[in-house]
Write a structure and sequence with these properties.
Layout (H helix, E strand, L loop, with lengths): L3 H39 L11 H31 L8 H25 L39 H4 L3 E3 L8 E2 L4 E2 L5 E3 L4 E3 L4 E3 L4 E3 L4 H33 L4 H29 L4 H4 L8 E5 L20 E4 L19 E7 L12 H9 L3 H5 L21 H10 L21 H4 L30 E3 L5 H12 L14
Antiparallel strand pairs: 1-8, 2-3, 4-5, 6-7, 8-10, 9-10, 9-11
Helix pairs in contact: 1-2, 2-5, 5-6
Amino acid sequence: MASSTDTRASLAIARIIPALIIGLFVYVCYAVTKQLCINYLIHPSPHYHHSPRLGAGVVIIVIFYILLIAVLTTYIRVLSTIIWNTGFLPRGAACNLQQKQAENTAAGQRDHQKHRSNGQQPNPPPEKVGQAEPDLESGLDYKAAGKAYPFDAYGLESFYTKDVFVCQEDGRPRYCSKCCQFKTDRAHHCREVDRCVRKMDHFCPWVGGVVSETSYKFFIQFVFYTSLFCIFNIIITAVFTAELRQNAGRVNAHWLVVLGVSCFFGLFASGMTLSSLQLAMNNLTTIENIGHKTKVWTLAVHIPRPHDIGIDPETQWAATFPTVTYPAPRSSPLLRGQDSKSEDRRVFAILRTQPGENPWDLGSYMKNLQQVMGYTVADWLLPLKQSPCADHSSLESAFALGPAIQKLKREAGLEPPEQPNGAAVNGRSTPAPERYKNKRADRPSRSVPSEDQSSDGIGPALPPQAYRAHHHSLHGHHGRESQASSSRSQPSEISSPSGSD
């Protein structure tokens, strides 16, 4: 976990730089409006020795301030969104407890040093008092940006009520050991602020902090308008600097400063505009783009009719891939005395994409851009509405899914293959292809990892009764019966292939 000092330093820098940027805008306004348009074009100073050019001065002022308003509006919008609506995920209860203990220890050390500097008898230095490990299932943090997910099956409803979500190999959502919390789809832990952020793109001190799903659209608009603004300033200052040098043999220092600053920020903003649009057209973030050609996504895909493909939630065995069932079965101690119907359980197939496949790519550059920029021209130009991708109310997935998911379902036999006449084969799903049948039945089963084995992406173990995983035995009908009969006398554990597809 990043230290609180580093976190405060990163946030302080991210707050100071925007103030410097605003000051730079004020200076550019002075140089262009006063030094160029008024003193050189509209009311020329006597040492310039030329007649007024009122029309040119007015046109430059009008265009300059129209672009400036667009830049400042988008900049204020992205700043306010990053400060007040960053998209942080809530921390877990254990993480907040650790932070509170660390703050108390630091405060005690400061008091100890203060007494020593004043020549007083210092109190004994603070010592870490041995405390029992916090019960992660008993306490929730309701103050850290929302309600934290508890570590039981029902606390994961935000995940398994969706038809598709990103998971680990055992079917649980990804876990962040730094925030002590499960991570939603496409979330990433930002070390600069020591928080998990929804669909984080990058940390940018120029705009005040973390650019994420809530601010990415406004960030693109800001760098785009900044590019136009800088290009305009480069043109006017370069033209009139060359003219003044030719007529008077000298240059205006303010114009040169504007020219240099515009070249620097124009190059930076243009590059960010092109790269951001390219990522948006492929429905990727800057973090996801790193190694995306070899990235393999592990997904939990809901099986709408488990019995149609030979999955019985009451048994240990699935079809041809690992599965996980939410919530816990009726026999689970978590549900004793509660009404839990078998039809309320949701069975998920644990599937993996091919390397380089992007589940979020909608198959069209325009559709991908619309997920970020919006669906109308006004949405693209004006920093008013947030991106459509920030709406996670869909029951299918937290983000819109592309053709890669339909392909994955067909390959696993979870939906009928595409036929020329658009009909399914015999009205039912076909068996899974050889891709999922080449799994060795003698691979060792893997039980749920313990808490002390948790790391980023693994997480503390849930109660084994909180979910059930299934794996298919491919040793034939006789082998299946013998394995099933022997497994009934053994405790339930997660069984999944140890290798990757």
